[in-house]
Amino acid sequence: MEYDVIVVGLGPAGSTISYHLAKEGARVLGLDRCDFPRKKPCGGALSPRTIQAIPFDIKDTYVKTVYGGIFTFAGGDRLSLERESPLSHMTTRLCFDHFLLKESAKVGVSIRTGLVVESFRESTDSVTVVTSHGSFSGKYLIGADGVNSMVERALHPRHRRRRIIAQEMDIPVPDPLADDPQRFLYVDFGIIPRGYGWIFPKGDHLNVGIAGLNLSGREVKQAAGSFLSSHPALAEADFGNWYGYSLSLPFSERLPLARGRIFLCGEAAGLVDPFTGEGIYFAVESAKMAAPLVIEALRGRNGASLKYDQSVKARFYPEFRWAYHLMRLATTFPRITYQIIKDHRQVMPAYFRLISGETTYQQTVENLKKKLKRYLAEKIGLNSKA
Q1: Which of 58, 218, 309, 378 has its CA 20 to 30 A from that of 292?
Q2: With left for phi above 0 and alpha for psi between -120 and 50, is residue 165 left, alpha or beta?
Q3: pLDDT in tens, 119-157
Q4: Diameter of the chain by CA atoms?
Q5: What tens digit of pLDDT does each residue of 215-246 get?
Q6: Which residues contact 176 (CB under 8 A, 6 or more apart)?
Q7: Is 255 helix (H, G, I), strand (E, B) or coil?
């Protein structure tokens, strides 16, 4: 059987585009190397804008709802901020990805899991995908196979991704272990150079992690051990195993996100927020942007791959650039960044609005730069009138 579209990778991007394509009548085959449900390292924080972007109810995947954050520098004084509406709904990728997969199957997507995609061949009118369990043919191929995407490597053979290196573990705890780990996200800015640590509540466990830019896996793992020992809520916890992984930073604008019959979505396309590491929102949104263009291509219209490349970059890349500036600012001057947050409590509500999609990185960065200039002027005595 020849399919209209073959989707490689059935995480949030792959399942979302499969769902939208099948709803429009396309014959879709979804492939993944793992059998579902499967564990995947991820903080699992679903922002309000992510939930809004998903076309069906996902409340059954929530394991905890948080309303604020606790911020500290190297385990020191803690700053707590809370708001009335949810900041984030927490999930596990074991549950969330499986839920999306089942929703795509309900609308007619053919699912094949437990096989490895080895290569593909593109011809003038089709794409043949070679797997460990045989070959499949389709008119278009979607690469949604994550940070180590085989499809992306074939499309950009000389490209080397810039990566954020991370380590995380899930720690079982009584619920609640303590009020703050179960009610808030916890972020430590000073636990590692050029990075941060986090504790995310998941009901019956805590997701604990460390991530950093331009760091080795050994540096991250050493900092992770210090992070665990520095937090009082974790002192009596039963530690598990660390899971190492990486997050992709956005690609250069010169690299196409689609070409010919091949489209990249989600982290396979490098669509990850450089500051927060959020990827699920961009996975879902890029899939939603690609789906109607692939349908147009199936109906004989030209230029779908170029339209997709241009529209994704126009929508996300300006914000990614500002996010990268903010990430460099926060990781180069972590103590000052934390002090600004502590001295100017309106900064974190602005950040909450940012991750909820209520404001932009440009507005947030410009505001933070002004506060940084005033803060430095006051500290070195240049602002005598303040």
Answers
A1: 58
A2: beta
A3: 999 999 999 999 999 999 999 999 999 999 999 999 999
A4: 77
A5: 776 777 777 777 877 776 676 666 777 888 88
A6: 182, 183
A7: coil
